[in-house]
Structure formats: structure tokens, C-alpha cells
Amino acid sequence: MPINNSYNEEAILEAIATALDSFYTSLIKKVDSLDVKAIMKRKNPYLFRAKAMNGAAQIVDAILAAFVSSSEETIFGNVFFEPIATAAAQGQKALAEGVDIMVERDGTIYAIAVKSGTSVFNADSRKKQEQNFIAAGKLAQQAKKRFVPIVGYGYGKKKSTGRGLPKFYTELAGKDFWTELTGDQEFYIKLIRFMDKLPEKYVEEFDTSYQKAANRLVREFTREFCFADGGIDWEKLVEFNSGN
Length: 244
Fold this sequence. Notes:
The chain has 244 residues and is of the alpha/beta class. The chain folds into 2 domains: 13-79 and 199-242, no CATH class; 90-183, type ii restriction endonuclease, domain 2, CATH 3.40.1560. The protein is 58% helix and 11% strand. It is built from 10 helices and 5 strands. Strands 1-2-3-4-5 form a 5-stranded mixed sheet, with helices on both faces. A hairpin with a 7-residue loop joins β1 (92-93) and β2 (101-105). The protein is elongated, with a radius of gyration of 23 Å. It starts with 8 loop residues before the first helix and ends with a helix. The model has no long low-confidence stretch (mean pLDDT 93).
């Protein structure tokens, strides 16, 4: 039996709108604060040279695209799925560490840890998650409630683990996860429909921020790491990146 057999569509739409606003606000703030020196400290100058990247704009395009790609995945995972899952499950933000949502139904406490995609765990983080569930389970035990721990992945596929076998918690991904929260097998499809035209509101502001960052970083890169004739001073770049 799923946790719920209905959900509040208005609450879902509100959660999506808030999540998208948080996503773009955070992403734009990161792009606006980019600094070429901070980026070049973490980049491999030998790789740029090996690829014969001899233009400041060419290097900036590559680092800016990589930065946004990495940042957007992290930010989206942090701000999108958890509030929507909370609204879908009609639950509350959990107070227990490592648990995002608590739902109490018919003498059972469902403890849900919401993750973005299915490849988030390594051995250490999985062990930590298990310890967090054990701690939350003790609290449920004291309250004389049945305890059901779930790791839910917002997208992707995961071979479902039965409750208790082989782990003491359930892992549910994509369609299975959203069905568990709402009782609606089509909810994972509806979620993309519910987004509707909301993302379009932010595209222009993000594009403006991106182009300004590209122009700013090219100017900074040219000033810091180029000769007067515009050629890249590779030795200066390497010394800055890897020197004492």
C-alpha cells in the first residue's frame, strides 16, 4: 500500500514554483560571483594546452559551461525534489538527521530521505544513511510506532528492495517513488506537466547573467594571463596554478 492515495495539486504547484525560483536564484548568484583566478586555481592548464586552446574566449567558454553544468545539477538536487516530495507525501520536514520527510499514518512513521539521482551513495555515505535511519527508528520505537524507512530518488530507475530484504530500508526511484508518496502511478509524468511554462520565466535573466559572466571572465583572463599581443602566457598560467 502506498503512503497516500491522494495529493493536493495546489500544494504541488506551489512547491514547484518555489523550487524553480530557488534554483534559478541560486544558480544566477553563483554565475554572477564567478572569478577567473578562483576558477583557474582548480583547472588543469596542461589539458587546455594539450587541446591547443589558444583563445581566452575558448577557454572561458569551456570553464563556464563546465561550471554551470556541475553547479546546476548540485543546486537542482538540493532545492527541487525535497519540497515537492514533502508536498506530495503531505508530510512534515523531519527533525532527525539524514531524514528529510516524516509522515505519520495509522500508527506508522514513514521516514523518507530524498535524493536526486540513484548514484548519490558511496560506501561511507550509505553507512551514514543507515545509521541515521537506525537513530530515527529508535525514536519511533519509543513512541510505540511502526517504523518504515525509505530512500527515495527523484528520477531514474532502481531495483526495488523489499522492506526488510536485503536491507532494512526501502529504495524507490522515479515512478515507484512518486507512486509511493501519492498513490498515483502517473504522478512522475504529471510532475513534468505541472512545471508547464514556469521555467521560461527565468531563461532571459539567466542568459543575461551567463553572457555578462563570459564577457567578464574573458576580460579578467586576458588581463591576468595574456601577453600584450593577446597570446596566452602559458608559463604564467602554470606558475599561478601550480607554483609555490
